[in-house]
From TrEMBL:
It comes from Nocardioides panacis. Residues 38-133 form the Methyltransferase domain. It holds the Pfam family Methyltransf_25. One of its GO terms (molecular function) is methyltransferase activity. One of its GO terms (biological process) is methylation. This is Class I SAM-dependent methyltransferase. Keywords: Methyltransferase, Transferase.
């Protein structure tokens, strides 16, 4: 989907995604000391706002103006909105550059791209980190198409943790976690495709590495 299609999707409902952070973003990153973070393909800003709540100074990047507008609106309605540090940036993650000051954390959550574009996004995200910074990615796993629920039905935009590590070939990093993970999706979830059948399991690829050079 291009930026116009995402604008239309975001404009069609109050929130496409929940206002709460992705469960893996919250569980994996809660223990990090806050600093500068970039949330790439931030969408409606749920992860960016959660990071800001934890004390991070966040750059939230997305190519959908409608998504960014929703993120700003969520921040304005937040009880601590004025104290949350989020810079909402309109831009394409495939062209993302960190500028002169590197980041302590870069997040890519459910950015489903074909192989060449995925590799570009992953390497640009990793390249924005300082030495010692954390790269975190979670996405719909390749096996979700046949074994899980929800997510894209186009196999070309699904991938595994091992493929993401391959995208970083030649870079220096320490792997903290790289594996397929399970996510329980209740039948009340707006993106759930099996309403009435109870909770189902989705499968995600999760990668967390620390840049060492």
């Amino acid at each position: 989907m291009d930026a116009r299609a995402w604008d239309e999707r975001y404009a069609a409902s109050e929130l496409v995604w929940s206002a709460t952070p992705n469960q893996f973003v919250a569980s994996e990153l809660a223990g990090l000391s806050p600093g500068r973070a970039a949330d790439l393909a931030a969408g409606e800003g749920r992860n960016a706002l959660w990071l800001a709540e934890q004390g991070w100074e966040v750059t939230a990047v997305d190519f959908s103006l409608a998504g960014l507008d929703k993120g700003r609106a969520l921040q304005e309605r937040h009880e601590r909105g004025r104290d949350l540090h989020v810079d909402w940036v309109h831009g394409d993650v495939l062209d993302f550059e960190s500028g002169p000051v590197p980041y302590d954390l870069v997040v890519l959550a459910y950015l489903q791209l074909a192989e060449d574009e995925r590799r570009t996004a992953v390497r640009r995200a990793f390249g924005a980190l300082r030495v010692g910074g954390t790269f975190f990615l979670v996405a719909h796993d390749t096996t979700n198409l046949t074994e899980g629920t929800g997510g894209p039905t186009d196999a070309s935009v699904l991938y595994t943790a091992e493929e993401v590590l391959g995208d970083l070939d030649g870079e220096r990093f320490e792997v903290e976690r790289a594996e397929r993970v399970r996510r329980v999706v209740p039948d009340t979830d707006p993106a759930h495709q099996h309403t009435g059948e109870g909770a189902r399991t989705a499968y995600d690829a999760l990668v967390r590495v620390v840049r060492t050079g």
